[in-house]
Amino acid sequence: MAQTLVFALSCFLKLTVGFDIGLSTKCIAIPKEMDMCHDIGYSEMRLPNLMGHTSLAEVIPKSAEWQHLVQTGCHPYARTFLCSLFAPVCLDTFIHPCQSMCVAVRDSCAPILSCHGNSWPESLDCDRFPADEDMCLASLSKEYQHIPKVFPKPTCQTCPAVEEFFTHKRILEVFCLNNFAVKVRLSKNRRIASDLQYNVECQIEFINQGLLLPYDTRNVIEQWLFINENCAQKMTHAYRPMVYLIVGSIEDSNVLVNQVYHWQRRDSQLTLATRKWRHHKCL
After folding, report:
1. Which are the contacts of 102, defined by CB distance < 8 A and separation ≥ 6?
2. Domain boundaries along the sequence of the chain
3. Whose CA is closest to 141, among 101, 81, 97?
4. Which residues contact 6 (CB under 8 A, 6 or more apart)?
5. Which of 42, 77, 79, 126 is most open to solvent, judged by the fewest CB atoms within 10 Å of its CB?
6. CATH level 3 topology of 2-145
7. Could you tell me the pTM of the whole model?
């Protein structure tokens, strides 16, 4: 997925430089297959678009390749930035994304590429987009740029250990070394090409809540799985839903997963550890 993403990024400017904005264009409804660009404030897009695509047969599969980046939640403007290229709003003229938007998305989302061994391509140099004082899309406000981080966010990290053999005493030690532990039921499904989607099913059970917020934890875990896709693939061997105990910590507003246990019915040690944890005192 990451290689596909880098390829799409590297092609972007070549396409936009060669695209004659004076070509005849038409307005069409954003197709339902373009999930990424639904509910973005408008329902019609221009073709050809700013990626040089001239038909839906080109746009739909190409835009789907970027869905993974949006699902990581790397930046709240990532979807707006990408849709301004793939599904530009149907106005009298094309509206490009501003430099400030490109910079903000790049700075937040480039680490996702780095997590897969790639860097933000030079061809997507933000200096090539219009300056904020020009007519461009959704320039970031100063107020937004200075909003402090309130909620912990998942980050790219080395893969956590997946324990296969353990005792309840060792699990309690791990609990003491971390500040959250949650029991979740995860499923993975194959989507477009080799892309995988990970979902948290059913209600999350908190063993140790720590700094995680109950109403945000599902999203945090799913984002962690998307960002650390290579780790998620190692964790989830089967396509059928399985239960996991995920243990980690919050450091500098970053969610780090440090230990993962496969929770099976025969794992009496896990059950015993979670029961004892209620009254356990860490040394």
Report:
1. 81, 124, 126, 129
2. 2-145, 153-277
3. 101
4. 113, 118, 121
5. 42
6. Frizzled cysteine-rich domain (1.10.2000)
7. 0.71
